[in-house]
Amino acid sequence: MNTDMTQLQKKHRTNLCKKRGRSDKDMTKTTMKRRKNKGIAKERDSRTGVVISIHHAEGIDNPSSYPSVINRNYRVLFWVYPADQLATELASGSPNLAWNKKYCIELDEARDCRFLYVEVLRCGSSSESEPGTSNGLRLVGRAKIALPNLSGKTQGRYGLVRLEEDGYKAEGHIILSMELMKIDQS
After folding, report:
1. How many whole angstroms separate alpha carbon 47 and alpha carbon 106?
2. Is the pTM for the entire model greater than 0.85?
3. Which PANTHER family match (predicted)?
4. Which of 13, 24, 28, 57 would you call most buried, defined as having the most Cβ atoms within 10 angstroms of its Cβ?
């Protein structure tokens, strides 16, 4: 009985192949190719992104070191690609600030994406800004942080450097976490 069933299945498959104008071997190749293409489509549907949680900053514009600073509103500017910069909302205070916000940046595997660049900016009025700036923004610290491996997580307290007249000065820290993960597009 099993032999009869197997012969019937072969006959049906051969008839189906003849209707489509393909040999039995070609039909098997086509089926395998379709299976592979479905796998590729699934891979294309899934992209990589980095979830960034910006928690807080410490030691920014210490009032004892910078008594002339009146407006103490700060924003974090961050990016993986320079053309795609993101910014937090304003936070007030000094020397410690809190944002506690999460962001997601989709990564383009064709572009270089090994680091997260972070800058902490003081946002004041143009009358309060440093000579030469007209928008009231002052860079008070920056960092370059390596992205984690795929499905990896990293968190820490990262040192900031600030540009002074005589070079760079280490001052303040930013506390953040990052997680690299697949983003499902379906």
Report:
1. 7
2. no
3. C2 DOMAIN-CONTAINING PROTEIN (PTHR38365:SF1), C2 DOMAIN-CONTAINING PROTEIN-RELATED (PTHR38365)
4. 57
